[in-house]
Protein: VOC domain-containing protein
Organism: Bradyrhizobium archetypum
Amino acid sequence: MGTRTPREGIMVRGTEKKYEDTGRLDHIAFAATDVDGMRKRLQSKGVKFRESIVPRTGDTQFFLYVPDGVGVELNFPKA
């Protein structure tokens, strides 16, 4: 898919392949703010998510799934 450059607004990532678990839509990515506040909110609601740090930028990413299996990616700029 090439390099991933953060941008303003909503980014939708799809695939030309069709998988049984996600179909053509793999995940939706959002630029986000307040990484600590969002972490606490997700934890308080019992939402399972995976957190990672982007090695080249130091940005934080959260990955979670809505009930129908579509992924949501939240991107927080390095503080």
The beta strands are 10-19, 23-31, 50-53, 60-65, 71-76.
